[in-house]
Amino acid sequence: MQKPHVALLSSPGLGHLIPVIELGKILALHYNFKVTILAVTSQTSQAESHVLKSAISSVVNFCDFLDIPPADLSGLLENEAAVVERLCVVMRETKGAVRSVISNMTHLPSVLIVDIFGSECLSLAQEFGMLKYIYVASNAWFFSLLLYTPILDKQVQGQFVDQKEALEIPGCSPVRPEDVVDPMLDRNNRQYQEYVGVGMGMVKGDGILVNTWEQLQYRDLQSLRDENLLGGMLKVPVYAIGPLVRAPEPPTSSTVELLGWLDQQPSESVVYVSFGSGGTLSYEQTVEVACGLELSQLRFVWVVRRPNSGRADSAYFSIGDGRGRENDDVSNYLPEGFKERTHKVGKLVPQWAAQATILRHPSVGGFVSHCGWSSVLEGITNGVPMICWPLYAEQRMNATLLAEELKVGVKPKVLPAKKVVGREEIARMMRDIMEGEPNPIRERARELKESAAMAMKIGGSSFTALDDVAKQCNESLRHVHKQN
Ligand code: UDP
């Protein structure tokens, strides 16, 4: 019997590709579908291309992997164009290449799944008669704001960040003006209009897949399904299929060494510090993090990057600095003598660490995270409490969700991307999540770990939702056969 062929399209950035690969793996391994991953690639550093290769090699035995080089954008983008504008332009301009890749396939896919920046390409699904889904690799509250932004665009006068009241989204928690996603920070920036366009594109699929689970975000998911709330705008089913998280990659020699060190540390005693695939700190902030770690006297593993000169997302598209500097000596931008003073209690990893492997190590008991959603899920599924340190994209919303609603972490008093978080506060937050028995934040992290596992097990809410999607995919195949 012929099996469904699902094409998954990922926009540039490891943070986009990794969740798409995980979804592809499940569809291939669990449902035995033919899966082709279409990855629009961006320039990557040496360390990241290692991760990319290892992510691809973890999947090539089950999925086809096609690299789609982005179109030539010279002349289309200013040097300082923001990340969302870049992503939208890249995806729009690459649509022709995606069409020709699909039309040249001998076994035409019957299903197309795109990430939120790929909705332009959903018209291809229409063209080829495919079932079409949007995969939101983030959470349902963020998705609600994205969907509702075109309405807020009409309702709200002036800058969102200057509003006195929180932004109301039907059926969901309001969003504080300072927590809005990056592209909403300045309505005069070109990426804002692109972002409104992304929001409008969310209604173009036959269904939405979200990397969350019912128990975690019941209220937002209900709103997205309720005709009188956001469901009235969306009008298509919403499947909470998460948490889909990355399996640990085969360790490199430096990871093996690090794991050996972790093996010797007491249980839940080490704080892991990382700002995601594209995040960097200013020089001043890097120094405060170092001093905060020293002050806390806790054990740590810190993924250190060269400080940025103004943009926390500077590493995302290799804009300027922060990336491709694997051979940098990290002590160049740390306080003098820091490395030597802390070498017994701390490990510095330049640029990129095997995060999925480190977070599941029993010695790791805390996570200083930029709150990218994949990192959040990796923290939660390992029951690790977090210091929520948002930098860009939707990370401020994620941090608020984690610290204030789910109570699985703490947040600095100031917004890290705007002001420097001081060493005393850093040390205090570390003690908040690491010390005390019982520690309510750690207890909560354990509960959420359990809830995530329940959602994914046979009969669990996410397991069942994925089964429903798989049934639709099988239906799509029958439909295509009928057409033929
Ligand atoms: N990651 C990693 N090592 C690093 C930094 C990041 O393995 O040093 C992985 C991390 O485990 C996660 C992904 O990169 O799977 C980052 O995705 P996330 O959504 O957290 O953040 P973003 O891509 O926005 O930075």
Automatic annotation (TrEMBL):
Q: One Pfam family for this entry, by name?
A: UDPGT
Specify whether Nucleotidyltransferase is a keyword of the entry.
no
Per UniProt, which keywords does this protein have?
Glycosyltransferase, Transferase
From the UniProt record, which GO molecular function terms apply? UDP-glycosyltransferase activity
Q: Which domain of life is it from?
A: Eukaryota
Q: What is its EC number?
A: 2.4.1.-
Q: Which family does it belong to?
A: Belongs to the UDP-glycosyltransferase family.
Species for this entry: Acacia crassicarpa
Name the chain's protein. Answer: Glycosyltransferase
Write down the top EC class of this protein: transferase
